[in-house]
Input
Amino acid sequence: MKSPDKSESSESVDRVIHEIDGIQEYDNKLPNWWLYTLYGAIVFGVGYWYWYQNAGIGQSPLEAYQAEMDRAGAEQAMAITVGDATPEALTALSKDPSAVALGKQVFASTCAACHRADGGGSVGPNLTDDFWLHGSAPDKIFRTIASGVPDKGMPAWQPQLGALKTQAVTAYVLGLVGTNVAGGKSPQGEREPISAR
Ligand code: HEC
Output
């Protein structure tokens, strides 16, 4: 039953959309916070769908898991070949993109402070020229990196980095040799170009 009460504004009477047993249901405006939550959820939903399903940018949990397993598998596969740091094994590693990529990360975070980001040398010698204090053969470079030259300020890295990363960074350094970057430190040691590679 409608009660056209004088005190009630005509607006609210107009907004009665449903009435049963004297209970009136008003067509109230939805509160803004509610609407924004709805619109936000729609925008998020579309974005989420686009990111994960359509564009394939994001990884689903299954894909992320698979990628993680692949990476662990690759590290393990490399760790198996670690053991003997023979010149041949190190040369092969210097051609393995995953080893070189890992070595590059290690170099940037651990070695660049003394050998410059491009290997041109600052505190430590230039690693991109043909002159070597401790030998240019892959296994000699590995030994210098692994055991260091503590008296001369080159730390031993194998104890800190472990065998895998030490070999990976050696692989990366082998790729720097002979690049003779501009503005590098002047030569130190004997001229010993790497010709075998
Ligand atoms: C605290 C500074 C410092 C850091 C960090 C450092 N080095 Fe060195 N490095 C030196 C110095 C100094 C020498 C020269 C040693 C000498 O005079 O015998 C050297 C020498 C070397 C040599 C031998 C060069 C030659 O002429 O025989 C290699 C290779 C090398 N470093 C690689 C690395 C790698 C790879 C890393 C990172 C894992 C690294 N260094 C981190 C200071 C450093």
